[in-house]
Amino acid sequence: MGLVDSVENFFDVQEHGSSFRTEILAGLTTFLTMSYIVVVNPSILAGIPDAKPGIILAGFSPAEVRSMLAVVTILAAATATFVMAFYANRPFAQAPGLGLNAFFAFTVIGALGVPWQTALAAVVVEGLIFILLTAIGAREYVIRLFPEPVKFAVGTGIGLFLAIIGLQAMGVVVDDTATLVTLGSIASDPVAIVSVVGLFFTFALYARNVPGSIIIGIVATTVLGWAVTTFGPIAPDAGLVAGSRAVQYDITPLAGGFVAGFSQVEAFTFSLIVFTFFFVDFFDTAGTLVGVGQAGGFLDEDGNLPDIDKPLMADAVGTTVGGMLGTSTVTTYIESASGVEEGGRTGLTALTVAVLFVLSLAIVPLAAAIPLYASHIALVVIGVVMLRNVVDINWNDFTQAVPAGMTILVMPFAYSIAYGIAAGIVSYPLIKLAAGRREDLRLGHWVLAGAFVVYFVVRTGGVLTDQV
Length: 468
What we know:
Blueprint: H1 3-10, H2 20-34, H3 37-45, H4 62-88, E1 94-96, H5 100-111, H6 116-135, H7 138-144, H8 148-169, E2 173-176, E3 180-183, H9 190-207, H10 213-230, H11 257-261, H12 267-295, H13 309-325, E4 330-332, H14 336-341, H15 347-359, H16 372-375, H17 377-386, H18 398-414, H19 417-434, H20 443-460
Antiparallel strand pairs: 1-4, 2-3
Helix pairs in contact: 2-15, 3-4, 4-13, 4-15, 6-12, 6-13, 8-12, 8-17, 8-18, 8-19, 9-10, 9-17, 12-19, 12-20, 18-19, 19-20
């Protein structure tokens, strides 16, 4: 038996209707679509003295801190995704979560004035709580309490969320003070022009069922951007070509910093920070697992992901290790949908992603070789594909349509998977009660709804900032 056969047997590749080549290709696709986090996470977490809140290390420049954080990001992502591959045997990839890193830097360190070491301590505590709840099956039980319309709406909501992230990175959608969002200057912005060409080229490949269409589209778009910059009329500072930076591999100033953070804990503020990390990470991960699971056909007839405790444990371990190393909460990535759409069905896809993260340690300065606008084309393509999940919702039943619709609408508009899930969960028991259908409700539905009401008060009512 050869190496390929042994690997296929270990991950039960053929039993899942996949192949070694498909799994590797899916892993490559997922890695390309989420590799931006190696650059984006450090840029968010690293602080600049008197200019930007975040992690600031005495004796090191912001560029050096960003370099350290890039290494930490890679290590945390690889560790969590290795656990996902070997323990859960699922094609889901993990890395420090967007949104959670912004909360870490701008709210916890910036608005609250909490030392970065204490912020990391909160991440570690959150991870340990996750491990405990997962070990006793409590997280799986809570997720199984998700109302059915919310479960089926998550995939479509994530699709819209992916699409708006991608269109924003491509310069197709921009912010506007009057309308919040508007169409970008597509005809005059080189990034937008190249992105649109690459997007429709990728759509064409996908429509023709070309194997690896998303990877081909990403690479072709990158090459086009490089070509028009190098040989064409586009200036180098137009943003079509990704840059590089120096490397600082020594992460000892960051790793273990959470230990000192426990000596600077103010109980009430610390508990609120852990509470917020907990809710966002818990339901971002839950929503991603259910949504991507739906896209891959992993859900059972009740809309549940079988053995969900295993990928949840991978998330919990990743969060704990990430906090110990020096980064914000690790979570399952919605970009995993790109690999699933390419045919990834087992942990071999996740293993491929993890290995690629490890290999990227050797080229940290070149980790952003694929520009954001090129990699984010995949998000728009997958976002469009995931819209088809909306057909699973019973729109003729208003008590199903309201929570499903709220879930789908709030996710992209609030720029948060957790907020979308929260809106659906809170509206579900209310609309069922109003319709006189109490028999459809369980105590758990009210408990979840009540918990999210508390979360909204804490997160948007100024409770955190009032404690400064």
